[in-house]
Amino acid sequence: VESRGNRTIGEVASSLGVAEALLHSWKSRMTVERGSNDRGETMEQEVRRLRRELAEVKKDRDIVVKSIAVFVKERK
């Protein structure tokens, strides 16, 4: 069962002659087996995305820390 397309799960379930809940179960199992998340990313793609986000957050944190240091020096 392909997870892309314009049909609802109910429509696909009906065309296959299975219960909608069963199709949801199959979809969940397939997602786990493929190692993809809710965004459809594989684990490798998710790791790359999260590493980029982490680098950006660290950069933002460093800017805040440096700004605080400047303000503390100015107050002395």
Describe the structure.
By secondary structure, the chain is mainly α. The chain folds into two domains: 1-34, no CATH class; 42-76. The chain has helices at 9-16, 20-34, 43-75. The longest helix has 33 residues, at 43-75.
Quick gist of this model?
With 76 residues, the chain is mostly helical.
Global outline: rod-shaped
Helix content: over 70%
Strand content: under 5%
Return the domain count: 2
Q: What is the terminal-to-terminal distance?
A: 67 Å
Count all strands and give the number: 0
Q: What's the helix count?
A: 3
The structure class reads mainly alpha
Uncertain parts: none
Q: What number is the mean pLDDT? A: 85
The rounded Rg comes to: 23 Å
- Please give the largest β-sheet: none
List the helices and strands in order.
HHH
Reconstruct the topology from this structure.
Elements: H1 9-16, H2 20-34, H3 43-75
Helix pairs in contact: 1-2
List keywords for this structure.
2 domains; mainly alpha; 76 residues; 74% helix
